[in-house]
Amino acid sequence: MTRSPLRWTALAALTLLLAGCSTSLPPTTDASTPTSAGNTEVVRIALAADATQDQVATPGTQILAWHPEEGFALVVRPQSSGLSAQGGPKGEANANRFAPPEVQGSSVWAGGRTAWSGGNGSASWQKLTGNLKAASENQVSWKQIDLAGAWSHARKLGEGIKVAVIDTGIDLKHPAFLGNLAPASEWKDFVDGDSTPQEIKGTAYGHGTGVAGVILQIAPKATVLPIRVLRPDGSGDVSTVVQAMDWAMKKGARVINLSLGSDTPSPALNDMLALAASRQIVVVASSGNSGNEKITYPAGNAGIFVPSDYLVSVGSVNARDVKSSFSTYGYSLNLTAPGERIYTAMPDNGAGYWSGTSFAAPMVTGALALALGEGKTTMLTTLLYADGKDIDGVNSYALQSKLGTRLDLAAFLEDAF
Asked: Phi and psi (nearest 5°) for 235?
């Protein structure tokens, strides 16, 4: 028997955009996600430990996450009365947008491979024929975070650690990922409702591929679990991110990378973040690219709804340890890492440069994979924050407290062991 349902509601079709995007993209529908932002809602239902899915099944209801052992389920169902066509009481239907911080209003992927124009940088595509492991093009960044020193303490290089990349998908046949992907039976595409999370050309084309490429340069023996939640234009739904979080945990991910964000918190995603924390799974989220103090959700949630022990917010610095002009910051920012002109994988067997907090976050994800690969499981984020370096060019303590510390890989790994 289920207990009397205790529920909150939030629109399931709220559009998600990768962290910090300023573009207002229209909601798009597809076969795998709830349709119409005006007529569906995500509902949290309290469950008894012996509850069955038949007890909550009603016409039009889709179960996103089923956790009777934790006492709850998250479902999408037709919207109940009391919500306006614009969404919640204050019209929140169009507020929750997630996309790459790098997908700005004028950003396009020119010619499919030649340039990332607009936004925060440019990228020249070139063919890549081998593994990216610590690409020499990033030698300034590697020296900045002391990657070589870190590897002297982390000989396993992340081996045995599964990292979920919840993003636009990846180029599944890219040579940089050869031998580093989870079994194909674990791949998932929550946009098209299949098991092929392949990137598709659009304004956000290559984002997930680039993120995964950064992780594997830091932890070259880690395993990447690709999960697609964002459409080619960088938009997606709260429901798909909830499902992806659930899927990643069930498939054994130890770290989850969310280089995406929204202006509005989601109670459903809060539940999944809290569940990850309870299982000691660390979620790394980029802070956004607005350049102001409005850190996007979920990065802005660190230490508020979810303990920062298991939710790490990451901003970007340049090669001189100065905050990147685009990097969003604030009191809930935990760490910064290099995020300007980062050389990484691109679709179509290519490589090139990306900029944005989306590419600073996977450096921290890779750092965690290194530590976990050596068997370190406790106090990881505490050490990350404590061993980081203060950011240069900051003249006041008040501002420094809004920037966190800069990732120092070697100091982190040395203290971890």
From this structure: -90, 160
